[in-house]
């Protein structure tokens, strides 16, 4: 991922103009396209097209994630089954290994801005095989990688969603967090409430009628320099649950941009997304009730991050 550090010579320049240089995006139009498609990061925070006029300062770090998954222009047809990251497929369900940077399902119309999604790719794939559309069972965040489950029929969707509502499926994630959680294993319990204005989870009092209990089990897999690799097993499945619960304990995910309450440690380790991966998924088949279990290895960017932290001085 190309990156540049602002010098005194470029201080005060607009972000889009800086990106338009021949050795960067190459033109103002290409810079705008990169911003619109989520390919530009300033100090490890994704920059939007609305920030094109932002004036850069000395020391700012600008990154251009040229091949960010999901940032390419939407395809009219998949053309090749390999474009869809299928882990398992049968007549009633399909399990996919979603890359980071790609929405699992489309955003609401007021926030969509033509952002591509795994759902839309899957819909194109199924239409080519005589089916109307997929049915959403659960989802993971745009910049979280890993396993996602869709149904091919409404009946299968209803059965699978009932399992998720009863917290029966096993959902295991791996994350890289700042610091070293103590004890090395335990349970996180919080009451959370979704804020529809800021689009984040917030901690609330157990007596708050709006609040929902969030529970997960964690264990430290490896201690690194200033960080740790942890495994998290969800009991409940609230939106952004792992991200907010880790932050509430002072162990913000490396690369986190939303659940941040101050400058603190977030500049010490550079990573362009939250370091979170949906590693394992297990559930009962909606038709014959046999046990289904899947695992998606850590993607290359997370493996590279962990390797870099292993080499870092303590």
- Radius of gyration computed on alpha carbons: 20 Å
Give the overall average pLDDT.
Answer: 88
Q: What is the name of the CATH class of the largest domain?
A: Alpha Beta
The CATH level-2 architecture of the largest domain is identified as: 2-Layer Sandwich
Number of helices: 6
User: Which shape, going by the Cα principal axes?
Assistant: globular
Structural class: alpha+beta
Determine the CATH superfamily of the largest domain: Pseudouridine synthase
The low-pLDDT segments are 73-82
How many E-type strands?
A: 15
What does this structure look like?
This protein is α+β, with helices and mostly antiparallel strands and 314 residues long. It has 2 domains: 3-64, Roll (Structural Genomics Hypothetical 15.5 Kd Protein In mrcA-pckA Intergenic Region, Chain A), CATH 3.10.290.10; 81-311, 2-Layer Sandwich (Pseudouridine synthase), CATH 3.30.2350.10. Helix content is 18%, strand content 29%. It has 6 helices and 15 strands. It has helices spanning 15-19, 28-36, 118-127, 154-165, 241-248, 300-311; strands at residues 3-5, 40-42, 45-46, 61-64, 86-89, 93-98, 135-136, 145-151, 170-178, 185-195, 200-203, 212-224, 227-234, 276-284, 291-295. Strand 7 (135-136) and strand 8 form a beta hairpin. The chain is globular, with a radius of gyration of 20 Å. The relative contact order is 0.13.
Which descriptors apply to this entry?
alpha+beta, globular, 29% strand, four-stranded antiparallel β-sheet, eleven-stranded mixed β-sheet, 15 strands, Pseudouridine synthase, Structural Genomics Hypothetical 15.5 Kd Protein In mrcA-pckA Intergenic Region, Chain A, 314 residues, 2 domains
């Amino acid at each position: 991922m190309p990156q540049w550090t602002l010098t005194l010579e470029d201080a005060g320049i607009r972000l889009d103009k800086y990106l338009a240089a021949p050795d960067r995006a190459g033109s103002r139009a290409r810079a705008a396209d990169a911003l619109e498609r989520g390919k530009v990061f300033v100090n490890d925070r994704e920059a939007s097209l609305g920030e094109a006029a932002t004036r850069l300062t000395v020391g700012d770090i600008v990154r251009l994630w040229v091949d960010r998954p999901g940032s390419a222009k939407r395809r009219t047809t998949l053309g090749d089954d390999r474009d869809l990251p299928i882990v398992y497929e049968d007549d009633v369900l399909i399990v996919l290994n979603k890359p980071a940077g790609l929405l699992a399902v489309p955003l609401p119309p007021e926030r969509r801005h033509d952002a591509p999604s795994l759902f839309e790719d899957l819909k194109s794939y199924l239409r080519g095989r005589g089916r109307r559309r997929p049915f959403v069972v659960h989802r993971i965040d745009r910049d979280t990688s890993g396993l996602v489950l869709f149904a091919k029929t409404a009946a299968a969707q209803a059965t699978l969603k009932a399992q998720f509502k009863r917290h029966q499926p096993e959902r295991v994630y791996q994350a890289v967090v700042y610091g070293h959680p103590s004890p090395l294993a335990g349970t996180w319990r919080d009451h959370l409430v979704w804020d529809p204005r800021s689009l984040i989870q917030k901690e609330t009092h157990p007596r708050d009628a709006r609040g929902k209990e969030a529970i997960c089990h964690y264990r430290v897999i490896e201690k690194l320099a200033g960080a740790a690799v942890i495994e998290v097993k969800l009991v409940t499945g609230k939106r952004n649950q792992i991200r907010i619960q880790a932050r509430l304990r002072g162990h913000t995910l490396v690369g986190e941009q939303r659940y941040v309450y101050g400058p603190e440690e977030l500049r010490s380790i550079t990573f362009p997304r939250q370091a979170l991966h949906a590693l394992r998924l297990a559930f009962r088949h909606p038709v014959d009730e046999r046990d289904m279990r899947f695992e998606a290895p850590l993607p290359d960017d997370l493996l590279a991050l962990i390797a870099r932290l292993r080499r870092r001085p303590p």
